[in-house]
Amino acid sequence: MKKTAPSHYDALQIGLHWLVAILIACAFAFAWIFDDMPLSPDKFKMINWHKWTGITVLSLFVIRFGYKLIRGIPDVDASIPPVQRKIAVSVHHLLYLLMFLLPLVGWLMSSAKGFPVVFWGVLPLPDLVSKNEGLADILKQAHELLAYGLLAIIGLHIAGALKHHIIDKDSTLARMLPFLAKK
User: How far is residue 124's CA from residue 163's CA, in Å, rounded to a whole number?
Assistant: First the structure.
């Protein structure tokens, strides 16, 4: 028996969407800042903030994805052309995949480099692999590629939302920004 899709996103889904968006922006900011820093205690602080933010994104992803499976999400507006609906669904699937893979690969990389992740400085997380510099280098490259991929997909996601709001003048963006809904 197929479950009926909800008619709207609820407050938890909207809140998690924007919280994860902010955290992803912070993770990128931390990475860009520490990338140009000389080796120092401040650089290690930035790296730790980057790791903690990534693990938080991964944790919230699990909650968000689980809730999505339980509650469901509203269907894409039927008035949107089929090709655009397929693109929207594909972009969302890629966003979910990258929100999972990017922090997971970062955690694997940290383990392979021999630097444990201590979540928020208090909760030691298990190393997912043994120390292995060759693997660490591969994971570092994968982490960077996934990050650029996530940036590209986020760009498509934002461009699509703005297109719907500004050009199509439909309610797509209002689904995540309810104050935009026409009354």
Answer: 44
